[in-house]
Write a structure and sequence with these properties.
Chain lengths: 204, 204
DNA sequence: GTCTATATCATGATAGAC
DNA sequence: GTCTATCATGATATAGAC
């Protein structure tokens, strides 16, 4: 029974994640989640009392996954450029295996940001130490001086944005050639690293 | 009567744009649009036969507005860096006056991209000439050689992404200080220009 | 053109048998 | 725990009076 329950709950969570990530809270239907999980609607409400509770369960898992411990890379004891490169690589690995997360998070963020705020508060995530690390690298003369907030946002933007507008890129640039787009996205980590480093490097 | 009709249709379109942009197709309610326009639901259906038709009318106007003639800036007869700067300035002016468009477009793009594809086809928009212009600038030695597709996406990403994740920035970095965030976004055009130029400039 | 009233339908949620 | 059947609500859409 325990076994059965865990199994069903897992099936529901997987199905719900699939549907919610692609359709969003507003667009998702409990019927579709039930179908995807191979059960009926009533059982959904038995495990999770309401659509909102089910959504919250999924959303927190997704956020936990997408706002990850990459931050610890920033704290490593190497030069800043090395840490930046490792961060971009790690972030891209996540994005390439979960390309729909950016669109989903942006959608829900603009619908109702309160859920995300609660999670940020709960996990105590704070970007200040990242900004501190960047400033220290500037103090040490490893990179050019600039507002570290802009630097962080520039890097995250170049990593995440292409995934958020994937369908446009697919249509407008790659004419529905999935292989071409995958190859393009796969080479972006190196491109971004070079682009950023060329910009912030101290010229000799 | 003509006057009356135009006036009402305009009120509907304004109300619908407001509601659709903030809530999206799935989240918007015809009742809310009617309230916002100061009329009743039945009149909405008199002017636009269905919610979908009303949405399409709004969506095409928004796309027409957000995928604008900035492209002609790229064709001007000046050096590439100047044109790039003018493009970023023009694009940011649009974004600052319509900060919710990126979130809206990303949401609808991931819900159903077919509408956007039809519009792109209808207006015959094609990014190839932009890529050509960039390649010519590289041939002339104005900027470093790199894949022009990556360069375009880098620039657009850094411009648009912060608006798409506005609520996070607001909460995580600016602690709900709207003035601070506005000031930050206002200085981004210059920051991005410098960031890009420092990266692609030919070193002497 | 604009309104009130209503039809129609889809969806989230519950009741109750097994 | 899982199912079938059903409720209750809210949404789009239409009918028809003015």
């Amino acid at each position: 029974m325990e076994q059965k329950k865990d199994n069903t709950e897992e099936k529901i969570l997987n199905a719900a994640r699939e549907v919610f990530v692609h359709k969003g809270m507003d667009g998702a239907r409990m019927q579709e989640i039930a179908n995807e999980a191979g059960i009926n609607k009533a059982l959904l409400h038995y495990y999770f009392r309401s659509k909102e509770k089910l959504f919250d369960a999924i959303f927190s898992k997704v956020i936990e996954f997408a706002f990850p411990g990459f931050a610890n890379i920033i704290s490593e004891e190497t030069d800043f450029v090395t840490r930046l490169g490792k961060f971009i690589d790690a972030y891209f690995e996540m994005l390439l295996t979960h390309p729909f997360l950016p669109g989903f998070i942006i959608k829900e963020l603009n619908r109702d940001p309160s859920g995300l705020f609660k999670l940020i508060a709960k996990y105590g995530f704070n970007p200040d130490f990242v900004l501190k690390e960047i400033e220290q690298a500037m103090d040490r003369g490893e990179i050019k001086r600039m507002d570290p907030r802009h630097l962080v946002i520039n890097v995250i933007s170049m990593c995440v944005f292409p995934f958020a507008v994937r369908p446009i890129l697919n249509y407008l640039i790659f004419k529905d050639d999935q292989m071409a787009m995958s190859a393009f996205l796969g080479e972006r980590p190196e491109v971004i690293k070079k682009f950023v480093i060329d910009s912030v490097a101290i010229k000799q």
